[in-house]
Amino acid sequence: MPLRSDWSGEVCPIRRSLDVLGDGWVLLIVRDVLQGHGRFDELRQNLGIADAVLSRRLRTMVEAGLLTRVDYADGGRTRQGYAATEAAAELLPILQQLAVWGERHTAMPDESGHMALIHDTCGHETTQGQVCSACGEVLVAEQMTWVKPWAGVRTSLVPAGVLGDA
Question: How many structural domains are present in the chain?
Fold first, then answer.
C-alpha cells in the first residue's frame, strides 16, 4: 500500500526510482535475495516481516521487474522462490554503499563487529560500493563476499537469476 503519491510518471529519475525503491523493505528483500535467500520462509524469518506485508512486497517487486519467480524442489514438491533480476543486481553498488555509509555514520551496537565487503577477485576489502577500492575493478554480485561478524557468517552473493541453496 503506497503511503504517498504515485511517482511512476514523473520526469525526475530520482522520484521514479523512489517509486520502486522507496520502501525500506524492498532493499532489504533485494539484499537477502542477492545472498541466496529467495524462499518465502527464509525471507520472513531473516527480515522479521509479516506474511501479508512480505507477500505484497514480493508481488510488487516481481511486477516492477526486480525479482523473478524461480521453481525449486522441496522434498517431493516443486515450490516457487524468488531470484534477483539484472535490475535488482544493479542495486548492488547502492546496497554496498549503504553498508559503507552505515559503518561510517551510524552508531554500531556494542560487540557487533565491522561488516567487511570482500572483493573475491583480488581478495581485498573494498571501502566503496561500485568499484573495488583495492584493485579498481567494477564490483558484481558473484565476485563479492559480505563478512558479518555479528551473525558469524561470510556470505557469498549470487548472480542475478539464481536462487541459493541455503
Answer: 2
